[in-house]
């Protein structure tokens, strides 16, 4: 069994990839979750079952929070928690996109301390430990220093519309999109894109791992009110995410409309 938590997460993430690839582009069974929560495939459930067993056997005293496991209150009484998205970007997985992956994190006292995001189709493993930097396939990564007027931001179209910006002035940035929030954060971490944002309430399992990876790479990651993200909340959501290199993050945060409505 791997020794450190980061080794454990990395091993588990690659094992998740092996399972998911067995279903990819093979018409896996798909169901819709209640209350419009999105689709879930048999691959999501198979990966979740493996991870829950593997990680619980390795760290039986850790709490558990996963998109595909019914949540409870037990995790709130534990010192450390696994925060897991078995497949982040399920819609992309169903569509045959390359941009889905597995997001695994360990949280302690509300902070992510270890994280792994694995993108199986691209064979990319992003990793980070608190205070030790971030890496892509073992090589150190860092965000860009691109100024606002030249920046390319990852996010949905609605986030770059006037209601969310002071005086209705949308920042002069280019926009593109990837389906996985964890991957978006990693793409900011490694400098592939300059920033990412979402003004929707964001589930912890979507962002915990990517948030640490981006932070350890040197980006600033906050919620939409420019507050530090906290995890293992009783209701496991945070109010949106903004991530970018320090100067770009400051420029974007300064332009946000206070008291944003939610798309």
Characterise the protein shown here.
With 263 residues, the chain is of the alpha+beta class. It folds into 2 domains: 5-140, Fructose-1,6-Bisphosphatase, Chain A, domain 1 (2-Layer Sandwich); 148-255, D-Maltodextrin-Binding Protein, domain 2 (3-Layer(aba) Sandwich), CATH 3.40.190. The protein is built from 6 helices and 16 strands. The chain has a 7-stranded mixed β-sheet with strand order 3-4-5-6-7-8-9, sandwiched between helices. The chain has a 5-stranded mixed β-sheet with strand order 11-10-12-16-14, with helices on both faces. It has a two-stranded antiparallel ribbon with strand order 1-2. β1 and β2 (39-41) form a beta hairpin. The chain is globular, with a radius of gyration of 17 Å. The termini are far apart. The model has no long low-confidence stretch (mean pLDDT 95).
* CATH level 4 superfamily of the largest domain: Fructose-1,6-Bisphosphatase, subunit A, domain 1
Alpha carbon gyration radius = 17 Å
Tell me the distance between the termini. 44 Å
Q: Could you describe the largest sheet, including whether it forms a barrel?
A: 7 strands, mixed
Q: How do the SSEs run, as a string of H and E?
A: HEEHEEHEEEEEEEHEEHEEEH
- Low-pLDDT residue intervals, each spanning 5 or more residues: none
Question: What's the CATH topology name of the largest domain?
Answer: Fructose-1,6-Bisphosphatase, Chain A, domain 1
Specify the overall morphology: globular
In what range is the share of β-strand residues? 25-35%
- Percentage of residues in helical conformation: 25-40%
What's the architecture of the largest domain in CATH terms? 2-Layer Sandwich
The level-1 CATH class of the largest domain: Alpha Beta
Overall residue-averaged pLDDT value:
95
Strand order of the largest sheet: 3-4-5-6-7-8-9
User: Count of DSSP helices?
Assistant: 6
Class inferred from helices and paired strands? alpha+beta
Total count of strands: 16
């Amino acid at each position: 069994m791997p020794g450190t938590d980061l080794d454990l997460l990395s091993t588990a993430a690659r094992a998740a990839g092996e399972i998911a690839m067995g279903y990819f582009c093979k018409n896996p069974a798909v169901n819709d979750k209640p209350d419009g929560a999105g689709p879930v495939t048999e691959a999501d459930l198979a990966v979740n079952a493996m991870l829950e067993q593997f990680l619980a056997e390795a760290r039986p005293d850790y709490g558990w929070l996963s998109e595909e496991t019914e949540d409870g209150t037990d995790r709130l009484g534990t010192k450390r928690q696994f925060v897991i998205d078995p497949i982040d970007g399920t819609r992309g997985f169903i569509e045959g996109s390359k941009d889905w992956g597995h997001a695994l994190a360990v949280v302690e006292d509300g902070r992510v301390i270890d994280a792994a995001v694995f993108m199986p189709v691209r064979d990319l493993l992003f990793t980070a430990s608190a205070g030790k930097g971030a890496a892509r396939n073992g090589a150190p990564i860092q965000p860009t220093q691109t100024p606002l007027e030249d920046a390319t931001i990852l996010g949905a179209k609605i986030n770059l519309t006037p209601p969310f910006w002071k005086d209705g002035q949308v920042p002069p940035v280019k926009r593109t999109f990837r389906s996985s929030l964890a991957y978006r954060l990693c793409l900011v971490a490694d400098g592939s894109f300059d920033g990412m944002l979402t003004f929707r309430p964001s589930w912890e399992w979507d962002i915990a791992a990517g948030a640490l990876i981006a932070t350890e790479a040197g980006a600033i990651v906050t919620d939409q009110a420019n507050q530090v993200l906290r995890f293992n909340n009783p209701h496991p959501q945070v109010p949106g995410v903004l991530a970018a290199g320090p100067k770009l993050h400051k420029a974007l945060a300064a332009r946000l409309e206070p008291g944003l409505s939610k798309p």
